[in-house]
Amino acid sequence: MAQDTITDRLAEAYSPANFRALGHQLIDLLADHLEKTQDPENQQLINYREPEEELKFWQNDLAKAGKEGASLTFFEDILEHSIHLHHPHYIGHQVSVPAPVNALAGMVSDILSNGTGVYEMGMASNALERVVTDFTAQQIGYPATASGFITSGGTLANLTALLAARAAKAPQQVWTKGHEEKLAIMVSEEAHYCVDRAARILGMGSEGIIKIPVDEQFKIRTELLEDHYQEAITKGRIPIALIGCAGSTATGSYDDLNTLADFCEQHQLWFHIDGAHGGAVAFSDKYKHLATGIERADTIVLDYHKMLMTPALNTALLFKEGHRSYDTFIQRAQYLWEAEQSPEWYHSGKRTFECTKLMLSIKVYATLRCHGPRIFSDNVDRLYDQARNFAQILSEAPDFELAVQPEANILNFRYTGIPREEWDIKNGQIRQRLVELGSFYIVQTVINNERWLRATVMNPFTDGQHFQKLLAIIRTI
To answer: What is the side-by-side strand order in the sheet with 209-212?
Structure first.
């Protein structure tokens, strides 16, 4: 009898009829959600709750498990308890506003659950990954010999790129023999923290992370590269790579990539570009000049889930010389593939940490296939244009200050209509109050030991009227 009950429960869980009914309900629920977030009368994009209150709610909700049948009420609650990126008042973290077709692609991916480590488990997804990364490499300006893959986020992609740099430039093969030299990387002091973290994971330590100061535009000071390089050599360090920003985390500034490339060629360093956010300008005729020289990098990281309308996490790691992507992880896995060192693009597990990897390519491909390749350019242009619009509004406001004219869609500003000694604490309080009110979402950062409000224009429906309204609310606060 117990066995029959279990069988009935499993049959219900896997029922196509139940899935069809629930699926129609869910699509209607999500479509209503999108309509609501885009309704000008709706001013709320987050209903903030304290962490312990939120935890208690879901602990109580789990107690209902199995008592309501096949119900979607918990999906409604999840929407209610989540931040709404499709709302034009979302100008916070660097997370894309996903094209709705991605939700459908995600359903297909989740039903199939095809890993991409080996070809047979992911025939379509491995082929789509090749198509998507080849297309992206072409936009970058890479030669036909380039290759790449998609992985779960910029942090993992940057780490993998530095592993590739170590395999190519370290005097000894660390992968097989372990560390015998003190290796180092050169990086802007404005680089994303994951680059610092990756170097430490690789065993380089604090002294192996050579941080180069930036100028007033937060770009790496290229005139200081040689001195820092020679100082590292004097200390017994062996620099193997230089990392450029396109653009930097706090301000979105683009380094002088051509000069960095020249320096790498002069000293035989691996040139890696963290273009997780700003590398997407490669798709834009209007803004691609910001990343001039990007095609000279040995490796490039580019997040589809930032500027390219794709849900997180979804990141391309591209290699100018495609064969280099196979040198990073050389190890035996005979139950997966026979020839460990052969360059087989269709076995993605040969090139990534991940073996059972999600069908990440399907989401990028779905957007390209349904809306055409120009959609990426349209989105980048719109977001960068509106950031410049916001910068103009801030520049004309007597009670606001802009940290630096934006190159990307990231703006750092602060309210100055109070005594100067209160700027830091009051701007922090302003940001917290905005979150509690829930009508706008921005973040904050520290630049030159001073607190700034930070906005990233990620929603293509955000425009000047929203920026003006934000400033008005800040003044009220």
So the answer is: 147-151, 315-319, 299-303, 270-274, 238-245, 183-188, 209-212
Amino acid at 400: F
Q: What CA–CA distance (Å, rounded) separates 102 from 371?
A: 12
Inter-residue contact 265 to 163 (CB < 8 Å): no
H helix or E strand, kind and range, residue 276: none
pLDDT value at position 343? 63
Q: Which amino acid is present at 364? A: V
Question: Residue 238: how many CB atoms within 10 A of its CB?
Answer: 14
CA distance 336 to 329: 14
Number of other residues whose CB lies within 10 A of the CB of residue 125: 24
Structure tokens at 195: 């680059």
What integer best gives the mean pLDDT of the chain?
90
Task: Check: CB of residue 433 under 8 Å from CB of residue 82.
Answer: no
- 330 in Cβ contact with 340 (< 8 Å): yes
pLDDT tens for residues 296-307?
A: 999 999 999 999
- Beta strand pairing status for 238-245 and 270-274? parallel
Token look-up 């429906």 returns 461
Does pLDDT of 342 surpass 60? no
pLDDT for 331: 41
CA distance 198 to 160: 9
pLDDT band, residue 337 (cuts 50/70/90): very low
